[in-house]
Amino acid sequence: MIDSVLPPGPEIARAPDRAAGHKNMLQLIQLRWIAVFGQITTIIVVIFGFDIHLPLPHMLEVLACLIAFNIGSHLRWHERPFVTNRELFLALLVDVATLTAQLYLSGGASNPFAFLYLLQVILSAVLLEAWSTWTIVCITGLCFAGLSQFFMPLSLPPDHDEGLFSLYVEGMLISFLLIAALLAIFITRISSNRRAGDAQLAALRQRAAEEDHIVRMGLLASGAAHELGTPLATLAVILGDWKRMPEFSSNPVLIEEISEMQIQLQRRPTASRRWSTAASSPPAHTTRRRAQPRRRPRSSVCCASANRMAASCARTMLPQTAGFRATCRRARDIVEACSQR
After folding, report:
1. CA 183 to CA 52: how far, in whole Å?
2. Is there a contact between 12 and 77 (Cβ–Cβ < 8 Å)?
3. Angle at CA 319, nearest 5°, toward 315 and 323?
4. Considering Cα of 106, then 109, then 112, then 116, what sign does the dihedral take?
């Protein structure tokens, strides 16, 4: 019963994380489209607005590779519902590589948009495992250091002393506002995905614990039925033998008492099956819940099974126990009467 509603083994713990990873991958794809639009806008403004020469063919090649990768990612993750940490790590590595290529073609570390490396580091800290995050930190640090030595220089006007009207300062301001806005938007969404994944994982663990408790109750009921079945079956054989003995068959009162005890003993198989069914069968609302979108609290599953089993025991076990004790007392009286005769 548990296997029919829960993923097997460690998949219970991994399924919510991979589902949240899929949502986070979709967020990265959206962020990549924003990066594509931002790069195109920046190239147009720099070339036609500020009359700064850029290696346009090479930058468009990098941009085309990024667009092709994003289209492929969208097609791939549209069909697959789960994303692992390694796949998110590789996706962020592609973003770091394309950013490094564009910075190399546009001034290297002196480019104000070099601070976009911080966006990749923060996203990796939120989305990835520890080893993946530190790998991204090392790679971005090495890329930034390499861009300070190897780059294609830009011919910018020497206007650093003009304050806010300096082209470099304006670029840094735009870079800061862009990073702040993207972090505020996407970190909020990613945090929401993580909370949803944690809630789903907690619900799956609660379901597993409750279903395990129900199974244990079924085993307890089966054990109780077995423990009661052995002595009662022996007593049924003895009563059958007594009923055929001349000492008992000639006494109508004793025959009536033996028949009554046999009727009580015949209730044992039915009671045992009722206990096992009440403990092991899923409640009716669990079957309805699979077909209906509305979910009932999982705690009601365990409570319903416990109540069913308790009610069954109250209807069958107590009368059976009382009948068993009365049968033993009556059998002892019959044996004493026969010995006196």
Report:
1. 29
2. no
3. 160
4. positive
pLDDT per residue, tens digit, the chain (341 aa), is: 334 334 444 444 455 556 677 888 888 899 899 989 989 998 998 888 888 888 999 999 999 999 999 999 988 887 777 888 899 999 999 999 999 999 999 989 888 889 899 999 998 998 889 999 999 999 999 999 999 999 898 776 666 566 666 777 888 888 889 888 888 888 887 777 777 777 877 888 888 888 887 777 777 777 766 666 677 777 777 777 777 777 777 777 777 777 777 777 776 666 555 655 655 555 444 444 444 444 444 444 444 444 444 444 444 444 444 555 565 565 566 556 555 55
Other residues' Cβ atoms within 10 Å of the Cβ of residue 197: 20
Q: Which residue has the tokens 């008492």?
A: 257
Alpha-carbon distances, residue 13 vs 10, 17, 18, 201, 213 (angstroms): 6, 7, 9, 6, 19
**What is the pTM assigned to this prediction?**
0.56
Show the tokens assigned to 151. 């780059």
Give whole-number Cα distances, 298 to 14, 212, 291, 294, in Å.
Answer: 21, 13, 16, 12
* 147 and 100 Cβ atoms separated by less than 8 Å: yes
| Residue 230: φ, ψ to 5° | -65, -55
DSSP state of 138: H
* Integer angstrom CA distances of residue 131 from 45, 116, 135, 200, 235: 39, 21, 6, 25, 69
**Which CB contacts under 8 angstroms, 24+ apart, belong to 293-302?**
298/203, 298/206, 298/207, 298/210, 299/206, 299/210, 301/207, 301/210, 301/211, 301/214, 302/210, 302/213, 302/214
Whether 294 contacts 256, CB under 8 Å: no
Fill in the amino acid letter for 114: A
Pair 278, 227: CB distance under 8 Å: no
- CB 36 within 8 Å of CB 70: yes
Q: Give CB contacts under 8 A, 24+ apart, made by 172-175.
A: 172/112, 172/115, 174/112, 175/112, 175/113, 175/115, 175/116
